UniProtKB/TrEMBL annotation:
HAMAP family: ATP_synth_a_bact. GO terms for cellular component: plasma membrane; proton-transporting ATP synthase complex. Key component of the proton channel; it plays a direct role in the translocation of protons across the membrane. The gene is atpB. The chain crosses the membrane at residues 40-57, 94-118, 124-144, 153-175, 195-223, 230-252. Belongs to the ATPase A chain family. It is a multi-pass membrane protein. GO terms for molecular function: proton-transporting ATP synthase activity, rotational mechanism. It is found in: Cell membrane; Membrane. This is ATP synthase subunit a.
């Protein structure tokens, strides 16, 4: 009976879907346990889907594109247009980086919408790693392109000398708060949306167990579940797009640190 109660609690608990599970133990290094986990599995699946889609879309290019080629071309033009709009033509050298981030995050978000799949972007360690990667690239590009002049990013032009130390400290804190906001935005939206979706879906099963009148009452949470599902698909795209746009904005600061 106890195991049945635990299993039932797992199905009802909306946070249970975000638990990272070990799939294949890989031993230990010192006191650290290594394992291939469900989060790793879905990241590999996302990469496989992206590579497969790009290969299918570009292997036999036609003047009149098929469905897969149309999707690939649409993704390419969409991100290329975004990079050109924010960074200009010189920013196209960063297109592979921004395109990879966008497609990776978008694919992970969409995979998380499949029932019983794992939402990798609901893990703060994953979103934080992506955000730190972006800021790391921005810092490297900034110093390579401008040398010590990159530090002018923290010295806004036209600020009175008296206020300059205070403003520089604020700019410094603001810059290194970027990976925090970047990671928390993606993590928070995916986590909260899936929890709300699971809660309303749970209402359907709970109310449906009370016979005819319960089934009537379950119509409202069912409609809400459908609406939230549609919203979550939109959020999945928007969060990937916002991450890509902010990456472009941060890279622009690295290329042109003068305020």
């Amino acid at each position: 009976m106890g195991s049945e109660q635990v299993a039932t609690a797992d199905r009802v608990d909306p946070v249970h879907q975000f638990i990272v599970n070990d799939l294949v133990p890989l031993g230990r290094i010192a006191d650290m346990k290594l394992a291939f986990q469900n989060s790793s599995l879905f990241m590999f699946v996302a990469v496989a889907i992206i590579v497969g889609l790009l290969l299918l879309g570009t292997s036999s290019r036609k003047l009149v594109p098929g469905r897969v080629q149309s999707v690939v071309e649409l993704l390419y033009e969409f991100i290329a247009g975004t990079v050109r709009q924010v960074l200009g033509e010189e920013g196209m050298r960063f297109f592979p980086f921004v395109f990879s981030l966008f497609t990776f995050i978008l694919t992970l978000n969409l995979l998380g919408m499949v029932p019983y799949f794992f939402t990798v972007t609901s893990q703060i360690v994953v979103t934080a790693s992506l955000a730190l990667l972006v800021i790391g690239v921005v810092i490297v590009v900034g110093f390579v392109k401008n040398g010590v002049g990159f530090l002018k990013l923290f010295v806004p032009h036209g600020v009175p000398i008296v206020l300059l130390p205070l403003i520089s400290v604020i700019e410094f804190i603001s810059f290194f708060a970027r990976p925090v906001s970047l990671s928390l935005r993606l993590f928070g939206n995916m986590l909260a949306g899936h929890i709300v979706l699971k809660v309303f879906a749970g209402f359907i099963g709970t109310l449906g167990a009370f016979g005819f009148f319960g089934a009537i009452g379950a119509i409202a949470p069912f409609l809400m579940t459908v609406a939230i599902t549609a919203l979550e698909f939109l959020v999945s795209f928007l969060q990937a797009f916002v991450f890509a746009v902010l990456t472009c904005v941060y890279l622009k600061d690295a290329l042109h640190p003068h305020h």
